[in-house]
């Protein structure tokens, strides 16, 4: 993950995304890796892929606030305000808002 983050920081987001994909495959039980992949997919303009990765993170850890926030953001962007409100309301206590 560190290598992918370093590469991403240098502006090579396509290469970083491929590394994040591989990390997610190798870390099937780590929600943080899936959230990082989802964030990279969002950055690459792939909200559907991001949603899938956020949902994977939530299957691993249903209380992952970052996954909930990301999923809510995707839902807002696609115009599903009611679904976004539900997931963001669930995330709010975890992020103290």
What is the strand content? under 5%
Anisotropy-based shape: globular
User: pLDDT below 50 for ≥5 consecutive residues: which ranges?
Assistant: none
Helix share, percent: over 70%
Number of helices: 6
Instruction: Work out the radius of gyration.
Output: 13 Å
Q: What is the H/E order?
A: HHHHHH
Terminal Cα span: 29 Å
| Average of pLDDT | 90
Number of strands: 0
The secondary structure category is mainly alpha
Jot down its keywords.
about 100 residues; mainly alpha
Short description:
The protein has 97 residues and is mainly α.
Report on the structure:
By secondary structure, this protein is mainly alpha-helical. Helix content is about 75%, strand content about 0%. The chain contains six helices and no strands. Helix 1 runs antiparallel to helix 2, helix 2 packs antiparallel against helix 3 and helix 3 packs parallel to helix 5. The longest helix is centred in the first third of the chain and has 14 residues. The N and C termini lie far apart (about 30 Å). The model has no long low-confidence stretch (mean pLDDT about 90).
């Amino acid at each position: 993950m560190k290598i992918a983050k370093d590469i991403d920081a240098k502006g090579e987001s396509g290469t970083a995304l491929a590394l994040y994909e591989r990390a997610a495959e190798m870390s099937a039980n780590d929600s943080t890796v899936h959230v990082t992949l989802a964030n990279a997919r969002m950055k690459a303009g792939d909200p559907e892929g991001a949603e899938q990765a956020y949902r994977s993170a939530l299957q691993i850890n249903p209380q992952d606030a970052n996954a909930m926030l990301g999923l809510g953001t995707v839902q807002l962007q696609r115009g599903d305000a009611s679904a976004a409100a539900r997931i963001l309301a669930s995330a709010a206590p975890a992020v103290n808002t």
